[in-house]
Amino acid sequence: MRSLLISMLLLVTVILLYTGITGGDDGTKRQVERSGSAIGAYIRQMSP
């Protein structure tokens, strides 16, 4: 179950990065920051 959730999170991150890249440098920077914070929040939530 955990591996499925991690896989889904990584897929969403890749999609966000791709859309950020197509939006230019500012879009990429913004998307990387968002995906980084989303991953951090997910890890904090899953940690015991």
From TrEMBL:
Gene source species: Paenibacillus glycanilyticus
Stated name of the protein: Uncharacterized protein
Superkingdom of source: Bacteria
